[in-house]
Amino acid sequence: MGDDLRLGRVAGVRVGASWSVLVIAALLTWTLATGVFPEVDPAGPPAGHWVVAAVTAVAFLACLLAHELAHSSVARAAGIEVEGITLWMFGGVSRLKGESPDARTEQRVALAGPVASLELGLVLIAAGIVLDVARAPQVVVAAATWLGVMNGVLAVFNLLPAYPLDGGRVLRAFVWRRTGDLRRATAVATTTGVGCGYALVALGVLTALAGTGAGGIWMALLGWIVLDGARTEREGFELRHLLGGMRVAEVMTPDPVTVAGDLGVDELISDYLWRYRCSAFPVVGADHRPTGLVTLSRLRELADDARATLRVHQVATPIERVALARPDEPVVDLVARLGPGTGRRALVVDSGGDLVGIVTGSDLDRVLEVAAAVGAGAAS
User: Fold this and answer.
1) Which residue among 39, 68, 320, 329 is the active-site one?
2) How many CB atoms lie within 10 A of CB 357?
């Protein structure tokens, strides 16, 4: 999940958001302005309902951020590096770098978010009561109360024992503490997460078929996200377990065969393709810094007459769209970044930007096969 919108730093933590946040903000504003607020304040002006609804939607996003900041603050206090926080349509994600050092820390980090949401919920509900006693406008009272209730719902939902939700992490910490085996604890927590995900999907479908409308659809979507998240976390943990502390420098092909950008495509085919057993060639400038990547699949797309007139730089993927890695980067981090659209290839550059190697899908497949064959400790 990437940061489409960069929102700066809060308490030293980089905060970003997906474009989907705008969708949920608009949906909340519309729901509050046309449904919730007119019921509690029928005599109020519609324009006022819309203004308060927009402010309430933004405040709810701020509550989501507070939930994630609680996770991040406890993690940082425990010495865990926090890469940042991303808000999106279904909440927020604190991107922590590495595992908790022990089960107690895992539990504290996991519980920090729900506790913060529960505290916010109680404060906001109390604020709603005070505002009502003080005869504040009913739409304002309703906004504070709604925010309080939603924070309570957020806390309760996140405490479901469905990894990677907070409750699933609490379950993992419990099993970890009882058994001393993080791998077994992760297997238990993710299996429970998969089961909860299926249950939410089924309940959502049944609810939608019963005629409740969007509520059932949203529940099914949440269930699918929990299901997918549990599977992804399990696969990611097993990958980290297999690869251990292996670095990109140990996997890459060093000093790859390179080509100049002004080389003719027909020369590339006649002088390089038959000579070197490579499926991709980094394109470099005179300073040996990469400017792109040309692949066999791209060359196959070219017509015969075009090959005689085009230069390599005209058909290569520009460097802005090529995955880059550092030699000291953990392999597991690189694998996570080589998703669809990357061709499972990355150019490896040093701190000065010079090309030092290339990682291909074949390199990754081989190291995974070797690690799986010789055991978890082989890669460390």
Assistant:
1) 68
2) 21
